[in-house]
Amino acid sequence: MTISLTAPVRDRRVVSPTPNVPKWTPPLDPDGLRYVLARITAWSPLDVEAIFDDLDTTIGKQPPSKAVTPALVERLRSHLKRLSAIAVADTKFPPTNEMTQLIERGRPMQDARLPADHQQAVGMARRMAFVTSDLVEKLIEARYIKDAE
């Protein structure tokens, strides 16, 4: 049997485009896409183990030394800000009352200046560490974040 390439096709079904379908448009303009890309590029995952290390350094048996206290306070401040943002990020799952209270307790510490006196700075670090510790535990319990493994 020979098939001719010029033989007429008997069953030609024409598929017409679906009527009234709007043309797809991207959700963001080029500047919006650049902004999203910059945010994703700068993003770093939450390191819960590092948070616990800083909490241990702050609340552990020995007070932090004068040399490490300023950097430690800044890291605790960063942890507290980030955990607070995680707690309120999803409007479908608002923070619990306990989380809200911890966020409110920590808010003044997020912008407070580091005292010049070392003992006062350690006190500030410890207050911040206790709020951070309680907040991270509540977020783990509520499964907003995973525990360090």
Overview of this protein structure:
With 149 residues, this protein is mainly α. Helix content is 56%, strand content 0%. It has 5 helices and no strands. It has helices at 30-42, 48-59, 69-88, 97-111, 118-141. Helix 2 (48-59) packs across helix 5 (118-141), helix 3 runs parallel beside helix 5 (118-141) and helix 4 (97-111) packs antiparallel against helix 5 (118-141). The termini are far apart. The mean pLDDT is 89.
Keywords:
149 residues, mainly alpha, 5 helices
Cα Rg: 28 Å
Distance between the termini: 70 Å
The number of E-state strands comes to 0
Helix content: 55-70%
- What does the overall shape look like? elongated
Question: What are the segments in which pLDDT stays under 50 over at least 5 consecutive residues?
Answer: none
Would you summarize the structure shown here?
By secondary structure, this protein is an all-alpha fold.
Secondary structure: elements and pairs:
Elements: H1 30-42, H2 48-59, H3 69-88, H4 97-111, H5 118-141
Helix pairs in contact: 2-3, 2-5, 3-4, 3-5, 4-5
